[in-house]
Amino acid sequence: MDPVVVLVLGLCCLLLLSLWKQNSGRGKLPPGPTPFPIIGNILQIDVKDISRSLTKFSERYGPVFTVYLGMKPTVVLHGYEAVKEALVDLGEEFAGRGSVPILDKVNKGLGIIFSNAKRWKEMRRFSLMTLRNFGIGKRSIEDRVQEEPRCLVEELRKTNASPCDPTFILGCAPCNVICSIIFHNRFDYKDEDFLKLMEKLNKNARLLSSPWLQVCNNFPALMDYFPGIHTTFLKNSDYTKNFIMEKVKEHQKSLDVNSPRDFIDCFLIKMEQETHLEFTLESLVIAVSDLFGAGTETTSTTLRYSLLLLLKHPEVTAKVQEEIERVIGRHRSPCMQDRSCMPYMDAVVHEIQRYIDLLPYNLPHAVTRDIKFRNYFIPKSTNIITSLTSVLHDEKEFPNPKVFDPGHFLDESGNFKKSDYFVPFSAALARMELFLFLTSILQNFKLQSLVEPKDLDITAVVNGFVSVPPSFQLCFIPV
């Protein structure tokens, strides 16, 4: 048979299969835009700003709707009520890990973030317990975190008030906190191996939000048959894993099961004590890599965005520095106990996280069983997107949500005001770091922009998987 005829017949069969699969499940799933065969709704979505596209869909189809990212349906939950009902009221049913193909290629179903079912529960339980009980050695986690702001301040002094891009300095600080917990070791900010690791992590954070990788995550076959920046992402991930494996090997040689020094030691001891298949060298490397991703780039990106917003709003910066002067002064380092006496600084940190909307549509979830949700049927393993943007930028809870205003978290008396709608992508460690790092910087330096505040552009340059701020320079003027 003519090869062209075979190709046409094959494409026709694929087209019919796509139509059948899409139509067979659409009647039971929540409503949504009509998908094209094979490619789904990808042409109706702005891959440079997926969150905005989802908001537009919600205006037409309501708070629960279906989009097809390729041939597979994804149910989107938009707005506080829908997100809360799923993640809080029905937390067990929505606790599955959704698929991100480029990260699946890297993690191979292992680790803390993207493993599933029993494996994920085991790894998550062990990791949380180890980090929570970090009475390992003589210092608590806050002691470890408090050491790094002092190092960061000294490093910023070395800029001699000259213009600088803060990207790498602000990346090194949270990375060193993670390193002290994982490796029992921090790195000098000029260490070449450390800087190279930071470069790979920073590059991958930007690549993960690129339009090409958004497309590849919807059509994974592209990664196998076409060249593109996904190859750079995978190479950078391999570099990070090799870096971690070298540290693991060093730990194996010096391990004392009676005196664990850090996360890696605890994991290696667990490997010797247990026969769980979940605890292997490969899963250790992936788990540590996950901790790097969750604890380094997310915090450093937030810190970078924080400085940009403080430059844009000098009146906010002045009020924060007045509060720091009044509560802490100049002669001692900030500690977490100070936060309860600093409602304005607490509000600023919360507003930064709300405003920048770091992970606009969160990490993907999946339902762990067939479920009826708001009169719709969602089959087991269906991917779920929870729009954090729709919660953090809710107009009823946060008047003028597109405006940066610490008043969103202050009551009429100037006291800090909690909000159930504050659901940023961050852990307790990250919130501790943000408070201590920012307070330490503003305690020791005046921030000076190279351009007028009104001319600063604070719009995210990438708003895909992660919201990435534009590059900028500033001067750290000692006070």
Q: Can you tell me about this structure?
A:
There is one protein chain. The protein is α+β, with helices and mostly antiparallel strands and 479 residues long. The chain is 52% helix and 9% strand. A hairpin with a 2-residue loop joins β1 and β2. The N terminus is likely disordered.
Summed up, what is this model?
With 479 residues, the chain is of the alpha+beta class. The chain has helices spanning 3-26, 50-61, 80-89, 101-107, 117-132, 141-157, 167-182, 192-208, 211-218, 221-225, 230-254, 263-273, 281-312, 314-327, 343-356, 388-392, 428-444; strands at residues 64-69, 72-78, 96-97, 365-366, 371-373, 376-378, 383-387, 445-449, 462-463, 467-468, 474-478.
Mind telling me the CATH superfamily name? Cytochrome P450
Name the average pLDDT.
87
- The backbone outline, from C-alpha atoms, is globular
DSSP E strands, number = 11
The CATH C-level class name: Mainly Alpha
Approximately what portion of the residues adopt beta-strand conformation? 5-15%
GO biological process, one term: xenobiotic metabolic process
Subcellular location: Endoplasmic reticulum membrane; Microsome membrane
GO molecular function, one term: heme binding
Organism: Oryctolagus cuniculus
